[in-house]
Predict the structure.
Amino acid sequence: MKKATVFLLLISINLISLTFASARSKNEILIRNATVMTAAKGSLENTDILIQNGKIARIGKNLKAASNAQTIDATGKFVTPGIVDCHSHTMMDAVNEFSYSVTSMTRIRDVLNPTDIAIYRGLAGGVTAANLLHGSANAIGGQNSTVKFKYGKPVEDFVIADAPPGIKFALGENPKRTNFNPAPGQTPRYPRTRMGVMEVIRDAFVRARDYKKDWDDFRAKRTTVQPRRDLELEPLVEVIEGKRLVHAHGYRSDEHLNLMLLADEFGFKVATLQHALEAYKIAPEIAKRGTGASIFADSWSYKLEAYDSIPYNGYILWKNGVNVSINSDSNERMRRLNLDAAKMMKYGGVPEEESLKMITLNPAKQLGIDKRTGSLETGKDADIVIWTAHPFSVYARPEMTMIEGEVYFDRSRDLTRRAELQREREALEKLDVNRTPGSGGTPPARPSEHRQEDLDEADGGNR
Amino acid sequence: MKLRITNYELRIIKSVLNLCLSVFICGLISSAFAQSDGSQQNQTGKAGTFAITNARIVTVSGAVIENGTIIVSDGKIAAVGANVTVPGGAERIDAAGLSVYPGMIDAGTNMGLAEVGQGAPATIDVAETGDYNANAKAMLGVNPHSSHINVTRVNGITTVLSIPQGGIISGQAAVINLNGSTQNDMAVVPMFGLLVNFPRITLGGGGFNPFAQTAPIDFGEAVKRRDQRIEDLKKLFRDAENYAKAQDAYAKDKNLPAPAPDLKMAALAPYVRGERPIIFTAERERDIRNAAKFIADTKVKGIIFGGQEAWKVADDLKKNNIAVIYTNIYNLPVRDDDAYDYLFEAPAKMAQAGVKFCVSTGDSGAEVRDLPYHAGLAGAYGLSKDDALKSVTLYPAQILGIADRLGSIEQGKIANLVVSDGDILEPRTNVKYVFIGGRLIPLTSRHTELFESFKDRK
């Protein structure tokens, strides 16, 4: 317990210093002389970006700023929009509510942990926003949170207030649970087959449609009896009404097509097919419905239903006019989504800007937050990454990441603080409460060492 | 007539039905794989004499030749240089604007031992049952027709170390070329090294899954348990040495009693005698330090596998001539207060400290094609571009003891070559030609086949 306190203390010291760093630069910042990759209107060389009150005020050459503005010389550097990760479980203290197959009443908002170190590591890889989703254990998982990575701020500042709400669905191996043996004495859960998964979803929507009718009748005064509120069905009514985005985990193309057919029947559109590693087999059907695809760049073979995944998936979908985003679904992979976007140029030949959009503007569109983020355009939030080299180069590194004009990652600052942190750590290790029995060295901080693996297990391999 | 079924008959019917079901499922799975076994699957490529001309040749061991020629003949590099005569009858490959690199080498994979991670356990042959399996040989488990092989080699990785994992002594790792219809065709060093998961402190407990909770173990107990395992390992090594001595003595003098054959002891013998290397998995400083001490005490030839904090143990490693196969570029730092780039910059720190190392994906197979980007990322965090390239070519060749045959472009070496349109470590670079053992490998894979099948579907 005492050790945990010391670790928390360490973290909170980090938070405080970060907050100080960012307070200064709120009003006006001028990024000078960069190659600006807008993800909307091409790449602009030797170009400045003027940021005022957290928004992009101007993009152009030789811009003037107020005399007290902070100026960042970005000569020789590249600037991109902040990366938007459309499938993430970062900063979540729970992933799946395993007990039922339909848990639409559960909310990610209730389990957000704003001190998760993975947030900072994501920022250091250029990620500024994420779609935090339930896991894929349940056919209908629960309500998402769309956040910006405002590490060091209170949790309510993370949530993008005007982002449309969403909900996680899941198809295939994970919801049918056949890869996971029930604990001794536990009854296998329904559904156990792909047939059952579809019926679970159909049943939920039939109930939601009836529930909506009850409320419609009541509101139209066809009945005087007010229906009892049903927190499971309310979000599904919002789906039917087009007010809540469906993010549907799945692999096999037949399953995703079946879900889209069911959505046709109930009169809604699936917002994104998540993973969708076989989406290339049904690209025209996806394009026709205006559904998005949020994919891994090139992961495959880690499970049977990922065996037909190909790295050309993104290219085929793009060529068919599908809005494609590349997600990480991982605290680790999140840090190198720029290289995943680069792979879209290699596999099939997606043009450079279209590849960049797959980790910026396209996911922002899929999440309904493209009015404020996802590209470098006047009037948008100043969610910006400064890179040492072209972001599609393996040798590139983010130098600075800002959200709404505030700096949340600054490599030079990070480097200068290391010696100080090291001294602090050594001092803490010498405290009696922290001395390890037995050999030298410090025992691992248990929660962090286990977190990623636990999420993986909880989500059936996390993907 | 009334149909009556006894319980016994019911059981028989049930078992027949079960059998039918499993036959059906097996059928489904095999048809899923049959789909992958298209006509192009792991084609072994065309042999002959080839001349790669007008090429920028990145030899790795020497200077870059800006405009040169490589002659490939009888599976070897017959000649390389700026002024090389092309023999008559050679097939010419004009590499103007292209670069030639030695094929990349990944010294830490389960290539060919694991096809589908989840949902098809019959395709997994990584870990044998039990703790001590010195006689398990990866070479006998590698599937030459795995679709991971064609996917990997078309990105320029031509040689890998395939290792068994699991237990304490997992078995013997094989160096293989990613070409061939049989295991023997692929073998470069069929029994290269012994994989030992070096005992470390494990605490148990933790976790969010309520079903997976185990009681946390007292730290002192965990230390004792680790130390006991190290002692057990030492004893096993001494037993193997004694076994080998008895065998030798009997070979010289048949009047002595013949030692009872023991496959596990016989398998251990060349390793405990230092004739072949032992690969110890170890990540944390204290574990690497302990492994280095163990290597020094037992006088074996040691390699560290994993090596997150190997740079902190540079002196011990250098003193005992221990190299590191580093597999942690795509991993998160373990501790919350580790620097965010702790594992990205470890190769640079090893280079600075003079530790012999190579960069590996540590991947089971499917993602081994990302090897160049692992090295490149180390390049983004302090490692020189020259060292980054060497860390996936010449350095692994040296660590695997095959630098006389592979790892650089030199006359007389095996012709494992990659022709690309740019820096081989960059994700935007395209591979144009691949040679393995002098054969021109078709640039087809499970992925290009599926791409061709669906790219124009309307």
Notes: Residues 125 and 336 of chain A are 6 Å apart (CA to CA). Chain A has two domains: 1-82+375-430, 83-373. The radius of gyration of chain A is 23 Å.
